[in-house]
Fold this sequence. Notes:
heterodimer; A: alpha+beta; Phenylalanyl-tRNA Synthetase, Chain B, domain 1; CATH 2.40.50.140; Phenylalanyl-tRNA Synthetase, Chain B, domain 3; 6 domains; 6-stranded antiparallel sheet; 41 strands; 26% helix; B: alpha+beta; BirA Bifunctional Protein, domain 2; 2 domains; 7-stranded mixed sheet; two-stranded antiparallel ribbon; 12 helices; 41% helix; rod-shaped
Amino acid sequence: xxxxxxxxxxxxxxxxxxxxxxxxxxxxxxxxxxxxxxxxxxxxxxxxxxxxxxxxxxxxxxxxxxxxxxxxxxxxxxxxxxxxxxxxxxxxxxxxxxxxxxxxxxxxxxxxxxxxxxxxxxxxxxxxxxxxxxxxxxxxxxxxxxxxxxxxxxxxxxxxxxxxxxxxxxxxxxxxxxxxxxxxxxxxxxxxxxxxxxxxxxxxxxxxxxxxxxxxxxxxxxxxxxxxxxxxxxxxxxxxxxxxxxxxxxxxxxxxxxxxxxxxxxxxxxxxxxxxxxxxxxxxxxxxxxxxxxxxxxxxxxxxxxxxxxxxxxxxxxxxxxxxxxxxxxxxxxxxxxxxxxxxxxxxxxxxxxxxxxxxxxxxxxxxxxxxxxxxxxxxxxxxxxxxxxxxxxxxxxxxxxxxxxxxxxxxxxxxxxxxxxxxxxxxxxxxxxxxxxxxxxxxxxxxxxxxxxxxxxxxxxxxxxxxxxxxxxxxxxxxxxxxxxxxxxxxxxxxxxxxxxxxxxxxxxxxxxxxxxxxxxxxxxxxxxxxxxxxxxxxxxxxxxxxxxxxxxxxxxxxxxxxxxxxxxxxxxxxxxxxxxxxxxxxxxxxxxxxxxxxxxxxxxxxxxxxxxxxxxxxxxxxxxxxxxxxxxxxxxxxxxxxxxxxxxxxxxxxxxxxxxxxxxxxxxxxxxxxxxxxxxxxxxxxxxxxxxxxxxxxxxxxxxxxxxxxxxxxxxxxxxxxxxxxxxxxxxxxxxxxxxxxxxxxxxxxxxxxxxxxxxxxxxxxxxxxxxxxxxxxxxxxxxxxxxxxxxxxxxxxxxxx
Amino acid sequence: xxxxxxxxxxxxxxxxxxxxxxxxxxxxxxxxxxxxxxxxxxxxxxxxxxxxxxxxxxxxxxxxxxxxxxxxxxxxxxxxxxxxxxxxxxxxxxxxxxxxxxxxxxxxxxxxxxxxxxxxxxxxxxxxxxxxxxxxxxxxxxxxxxxxxxxxxxxxxxxxxxxxxxxxxxxxxxxxxxxxxxxxxxxxxxxxxxxxxxxxxxxxxxxxxxxxxxxxxxxxxxxxxxxxxxxxxxxxxxxxxxxxxxxxxxxxxxxxxxxxxxxxxxxxxxxxxxxxxxxxxxxxxxxxxxxxxxxxxxxxxxxxxxxxxxxxxxxxxxxxxxxxxxxxxxxxxxxxxxxxxx
Lengths: 804, 342
């Protein structure tokens, strides 16, 4: 909402209040100021000049050399190419060093050899349009003395032009919250300003003389759908003369960001700005059957709106219709078929109340949000329609552009009850944490029109004015009191009362510790979108019948790429890996603790978290990556960790993928991403990824460890190398060693796997280093040897692994 | 005669030892003078020829000479060892400006660093951190938060829906977690609730269809707007610095009444107005208010007994501000060159 401060001053005199103070105080009472602009601020050193004489330029067949009185001791000389001026005219002169809109600077100089000490301007050069100056020449200089309205201001040579043209208003742009549509008007903001500065509000009561006749004889009005149109008010004007509206009206419209068009249209806009009530003017000669019907559109109906577009209407769109066809999309835009034109003679002013949601949906569906619809959509005061239509008719009479027919058509389909609230000042103080006297509270409320209904004290019933549909209960009154008492005068206290337990839960602490582990291992945290494209499942080679393909689908996604809720985090991780790869980052180690979304029968989702890891570059290989996974599990004190080869997850390299278990609990999967998947993402490096269930990790994580005494007795170290078939895993060998060793084995460490000369093809040599130790004595070499014998025998028997 | 010989040996030996440069040279000298076949020993063998009066005198002298030589060897040896060590250390000198082996700890995402900071502040004030579902019922995202049917936020142009009847959606705010907390937790409640939220905004420098908010709420008997102000002032001072100046402005949210927005005085210009605060002198940091009695009642909480405050704000904007990140897209791009900066 753009507010002209000059216009505002008509209702509450704040002429002594600086823009800064106005902005600050209005903002703090709830009308947030976005910007304030001084009209004509870009124009400097441009004044009124009187042409004393003008002669032809000696070197040009079209230029004139003018001697112009600009209020100085002597006239200045200005060369101009314009032709519409004559000696004695008052013109606009940009002096040497003048600034014009768009950063243009004017400096004295020679034009074809003749000195020009400035420039004569058109209105366009001041950043204005023919809508602002309908009487001025479209091309050529602006001749001030040709405009009687300007001459009424008695401009003289040397006067600053911005003042003369009324181009010196302060325009304040407010951010109005949706609960306050009443503030989308000069009067609404005047009421707020009056309350904020505690100065009297001078409201004007429209007064229409009328010219006889009766509107009831001229038009029938019927509301078919009272929910969508609770009230429809109209008045008629005859013998209309269409002309430009007067300067003062044009100035205010321009300051408010509305383009002047003609007197009747400008009046509707002026009233909308002043009262916040959108108005529409119909050329009544185009309303067939002298009937206005407010109804929803019928199937197949169309209307050409004032912007020239043909609009298809649907059955939920409310329209203003005549006997046979729509003439206006209710609350949005009028139809070209009843537009005010140059020879319009009979006008019907509409001032109606429409259902906000309906107007918004219609405007959205038609893709045309207008000044009217943006007001209606917030729900307007139905009591405002009469005032607005009266004001419009008053302006018609003031402008002398028509005769107002007696009588008002006011069809009320739905009445709104007034709001009465029982006010308890003590309760409000308890709620706000303040100690505001009850008298002060009632005074604050009175400033915004909330009046006491009785004299009881301190509690009393108060009546909320019709334009404050947002005030419904005590809490709303508390806000009104707080606004004018000042939010910043409310004390600051720390939230007291019974204490709560607070603190992170164990699971939250574990979550944080997982992050710490990942970072200690060099992995950076990422944040990825929860939604993906269904095609990403193909990209990771997920089987057609994989249950994870059942994903929640967004019915109105931004696009295919963000249309389903992911059931796996792998595509998200691969997308980020790919992006880093494409950015030529040599390597990346990434992790995310993010959710997946598994559809549930009730329509919602299970949303478990998954710890995803991803890596490429810097020589990462399967065992480097596995080491990270192992370290994370070790830090989480997960016991009985097992790795099983996993050849059936199509996203991963069939020979370099493992499932991780803790006991029987499946924790997840990791390994090298299948080269075909990497290729699908365009990554030529080896990519590694892990997907570990956070829930499962939580379930198997260890608690506080119990201290293990440090060894008091020396250990015996024995190395062992065995030759076994290729298919025997290191894990199986290790398990066998542990099982056979008895209680003395403390560590088994793989230190070599060898294939090549000396080893039969299809076999491999695997070497371990074993640490044997007893807790209560020094181990004898006989004991150690006996254990080794058992181990060798067991390896031999169970795995056909022979000592090398 | 022997006396002169001893004196001569002493003088020659000491002189030679002081010239010795290496441990081996010194050892040769030790053998030559003090060894079994050494010069001193040879002289001492002549002791028998001496008279009974001379013998103790010369014996004493000989011992003195021996001690002298031993100590000369010792101190020379120490000196040599010192030089050897010095030479060795010199030869081992490294160029300390050569970079160390690359070791990089991973980085927490800057947005979660900011979140951690906020969580720690509230944890210190006795709050809990709660999380909840993102696929949410319209009832919780809107209705129970006093966002009526027909409200623009409910439109399909603004909110992602999973069902034709608009009953299941991606939560557009963290506020439904307030409702879940009110419905399931015993009173009093003090909680914050961070999380992902979703709105139908195209990606640009300031918008993303997915972003993060954090919600906070306290409900108890006798909670006041003064409590809200005091608590938020404390939080903001911890986040932005102890001398941060704040102000509260009336605002509108469907689920709070009175509602407010909280501004901090611009940390760059201190209120004078500059590009950082878009000339306003103030920077909006969050929205808050007293929980609307209708919201409390809708969750079965008697609003004549209990009251509460709530606040919420977007985490991305806070992170962007704190780290002076100019483009929201960087947050979700996850370029390691970006991540490693934090």
